[in-house]
Backbone:
């Protein structure tokens, strides 16, 4: 959003990105994340559990908790999958959509040096987006069940995607 407004409306940037609008975007993002997490927790709280109540996972996930239920969890797992896909693909779709608009706007810039400057600004952000989405995407597609307190590639990839971009943020920018 920031790159879109900076490149497509540079003269209006300060009027587009006001503190109030930024606060609304942040509040909306946090509200969406909280709402997306309330549903799996409320579904897990309603499930009947038999035998073991020990979660076989090294981090806080809903899937291993659902496996402990002694009832059919297919509907709950489908909702959890839909939530995960929404949380990952929603922002990614928005990022791709805004970058398509940015690329079209940048290709209309006459000066090659200004064009390169605009692409360079976007390239650093795209690098961080890839550093986040590539491990997360690969862990979803290559997910293996964890046993005991082991952490598989899913956890390693998700931990890396959460910690690596913030660590590299100040170096890349």
Residues:
């Amino acid at each position: 959003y920031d790159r879109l407004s900076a490149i497509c409306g540079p003269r209006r940037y300060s009027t587009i990105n006001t503190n109030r609008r930024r606060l609304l975007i942040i509040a909306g993002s946090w509200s969406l994340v909280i709402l997306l997490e309330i549903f799996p927790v409320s579904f897990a709280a309603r499930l009947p559990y038999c035998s073991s109540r020990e979660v076989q996972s090294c981090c806080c996930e809903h899937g291993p908790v659902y496996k402990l239920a002694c009832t059919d969890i297919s509907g709950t797992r489908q909702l959890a999958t839909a939530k995960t896909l929404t949380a990952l693909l929603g922002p990614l779709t928005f990022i791709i959509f805004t970058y398509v608009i940015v690329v079209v706007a940048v290709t209309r810039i006459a000066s090659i040096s200004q064009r390169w400057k605009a692409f360079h600004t976007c390239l650093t952000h795209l690098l961080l987006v890839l550093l986040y989405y590539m491990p997360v995407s690969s862990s979803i597609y290559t997910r293996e069940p964890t046993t005991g307190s082991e952490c598989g590639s899913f956890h390693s990839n998700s931990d890396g995607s959460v910690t690596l971009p913030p660590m590299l943020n100040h170096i890349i920018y």
Observations:
- The mean pLDDT is 79.
- The first helix runs from residue 2 to 8.
